[in-house]
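User: Hi! I have a protein structure encoded as tokens and I'd like to know what sequence might fold into it. I'm fairly new to this, so please keep things simple.
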């Protein structure tokens, strides 16, 4: 036994209940027309039930009046009606389909099919004379079969013609699916039903229950849903936004226009990310330099909108930071929405990094094209330590030493003592005078005079050692002159090279000491034995030069160590 009412006197046998609205006193049954042996849907309005309203009978009359004028496969036909002891029954075609209020999952392409089907029904209604405005389009009033056949039901709030949709004494419809003009009881139009359909489609695409649609509506009566639909094309989103615009003039004017705009839209296209570089390296030329690198992002897929944001992958050496505020890497813009192409500036601030180090990090590009972020390796080399490398011109000093040594050897066999002294002094004066060219007259005079005297003394000492030596002929004289000239030129070149690094005074001293050391060694080699005087001369001239060569790298190492200690507070590689 069951508690179903007995409609056999009216020619119908109830099979089961399809749905009910107890508060409104309405129950829908699946029944069989016993005469035709066809399935029908019987909607019983129990006006005598506690809590129901007999005035709702006017809505039933309106629905019957509207349905009798309609003939569309997407609208179940009106078949019959009869009174009962406690109310009224309306008989319609039975459609084996569930309402969209029943939780189901639809793909975006399937939702587009349903939208086209619903719009075709609205086009039919809006081309009637007078036009028909449903006024209560929502998931509960749209039935969809397993084959995605769509039916629009419940025309109890429908209005015929523009005069009938004017202001009335009571707002009718469902909150969240009524357009603002209906909520405010203002004039409706062909654009009014589009709002309810758009809201219904948004519920399907975002998985929002119809009773929770208000959670997506902001203070301006705009439905905010884009953040819940990252994988569909921007044109599909824009179409939906137009459907649910609060002001009717901002919507499509009618269903035919909305349908024409929807049909060519691809709804499931996914944007792609094409980067101008998949990794990049950069080297700073100065300490604290800000390096800016431009990376181009391109989305080649039409009708899609690429959205994303930049972040830096966590690294154990970097200080804690939020995803949008890295210690020394930033982006402009960090967030983006782009259809085709976008240039992003990657800004590297090396002020917090240690000198002469290589930093390897990973950039993360999160986007709506793929589920996982794109990883972009970055390699940054900071500027060298700000400690200059002072190098002696070893080649010039070596040449000077050899030339002076040969000159010392040849001078022992020469008779051109006055010429050698004069030429050496002249070359020294000429070279050192050039080096001191930017100095004042007094400084220049003192430097060149002292240098001339020293070289003359060295030459005199060298040639004095040859006072008792035998004559070697004219070739020895020529050799001495040549050796003296080479020594002077080498002295000038060496002093010029050293001056760039150490200044004029140190350059002069090193050049003269090197020349004197070479002459001492040359004389010693020529005489074949080391006298105490020669040993002292070689030591006094050679040891300072060797000391400078050893001291330079030691000094640089100490300065580097001191600088590294000052970098302890900076970020490590």
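Assistant: Happy to help. Inverse folding works backwards from shape to sequence: for each of the 573 positions I chose a residue that suits the local structure. Here it is:
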């Amino acid at each position: 036994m069951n508690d179903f009412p007995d409609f056999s006197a009216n020619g119908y046998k109830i099979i089961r209940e399809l749905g009910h609205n107890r508060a409104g006193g309405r129950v829908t049954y699946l029944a069989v027309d016993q005469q035709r042996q066809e399935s029908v849907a019987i909607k019983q309005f129990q006006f005598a039930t506690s809590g129901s309203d007999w005035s709702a009978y006017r809505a039933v009359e309106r629905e019957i009046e509207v349905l009798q004028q309609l003939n569309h496969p997407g609208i179940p036909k009106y078949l019959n009606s009869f009174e009962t002891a406690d109310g009224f029954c309306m008989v319609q075609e039975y459609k084996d389909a569930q309402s969209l209020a029943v939780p189901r999952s639809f793909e975006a392409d399937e939702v587009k099919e349903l939208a086209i089907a619903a719009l075709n029904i609205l086009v039919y209604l809006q081309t009637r004379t007078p036009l028909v405005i449903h006024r209560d389009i929502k998931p509960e009033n749209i039935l969809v079969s397993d084959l995605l056949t769509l039916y629009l039901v419940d025309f109890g709030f429908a209005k015929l013609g523009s005069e009938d949709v004017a202001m009335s004494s009571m707002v009718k419809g469902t909150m969240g699916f009524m357009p603002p003009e209906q909520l405010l009881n203002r004039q409706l139009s062909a654009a009014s039903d589009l709002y309810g359909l758009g809201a219904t489609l948004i519920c399907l695409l975002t998985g929002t229950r119809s009773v929770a649609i208000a959670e997506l509506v902001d203070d301006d009566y705009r439905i905010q849903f884009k953040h819940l639909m990252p994988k569909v094309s921007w044109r599909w989103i824009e179409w939906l936004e137009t459907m649910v615009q609060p002001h009717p003039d901002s919507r499509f004017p009618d269903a035919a226009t909305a349908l024409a705009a929807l049909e060519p839209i691809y709804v499931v296209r996914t944007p792609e990310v094409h980067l101008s570089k998949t990794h990049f390296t950069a080297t700073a030329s100065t300490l604290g330099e800000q390096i800016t690198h431009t990376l181009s992002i391109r989305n080649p897929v039409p009708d899609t909108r690429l959205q994303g944001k930049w972040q830096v992958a966590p690294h154990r050496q970097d200080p804690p930071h939020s995803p949008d505020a890295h210690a020394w890497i930033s982006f402009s813009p960090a967030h983006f929405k782009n259809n085709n192409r976008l240039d992003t500036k990657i800004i590297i601030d090396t002020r917090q990094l240690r000198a002469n180090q290589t930093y390897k990090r990973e950039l993360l590009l999160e986007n709506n094209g793929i589920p996982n972020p794109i990883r972009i390796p970055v390699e940054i080399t900071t500027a060298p330590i700000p400690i200059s490398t002072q190098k002696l011109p070893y080649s010039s000093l070596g040449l000077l030493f050899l030339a002076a040594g040969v000159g010392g050897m040849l001078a022992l066999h020469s008779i051109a003592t006055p010429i050698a002294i004069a030429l050496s002094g002249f070359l020294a004066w000429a070279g050192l005078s050039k080096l001191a060219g930017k100095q004042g007259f007094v400084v220049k005079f003192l430097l060149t005079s002292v240098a001339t005297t020293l070289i003359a003394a060295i030459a005199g000492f060298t040639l004095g050692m040859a006072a008792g030596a035998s004559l070697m002929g004219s070739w020895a004289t020529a050799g001495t002159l040549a050796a003296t000239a080479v020594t002077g030129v080498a002295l000038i070149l060496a002093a010029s090279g050293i001056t760039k690094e150490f200044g004029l005074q140190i350059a002069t001293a090193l050049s003269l000491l090197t020349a004197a050391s070479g002459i001492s060694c040359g004389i010693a080699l020529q005489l074949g034995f080391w006298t105490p005087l020669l040993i002292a001369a070689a030591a006094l001239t050679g040891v300072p030069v060797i000391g400078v060569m050893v001291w330079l790298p030691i000094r640089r190492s100490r300065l580097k160590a001191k600088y590294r200690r000052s970098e302890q507070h900076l970020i490590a590689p």
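A useful reference point when you look it over: The first helix runs from residue 57 to 67. Feel free to ask if any position seems puzzling.
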